[in-house]
Amino acid sequence: MSPACNPTPPACNPTSPACNPACQVDCIAARESAALGCAPLTSSYAVFGDAAKDYCLKVGGDPREPATQRAAAARAIELLRALEPPCVDTATLRDETWRRVAARWLEVIRRLEGAEGP
Q1: What predicted TM-score, i.e. pTM, was given to this entire model?
Q2: Pick from 112, 99, 43: which is nearest to 75 by CA?
């Protein structure tokens, strides 16, 4: 990773020309899991902070912090003990097609290209 990369920004800024792997606009694994009826347990960091990801069960905080990890473990135990799994079949999940996700990626790429200049 180059020294200019900042994988742990305080806030995700997809228009920043800096290398920032935390600034994703989608998470394929979470969406595919939810599409199969599994409840993705995620942090609220980066892409998962997106309110449109209403099919994810979120634990607030930075996933690298021990407190967030403990909260996620406690939530996982709670989910495993539940008699019924949570329903993650939302309108957002059903509407989030590959075409729409690709359009979001292209939007971010175009902004990055514009931020870096010709």
Answers
A1: 0.61
A2: 43
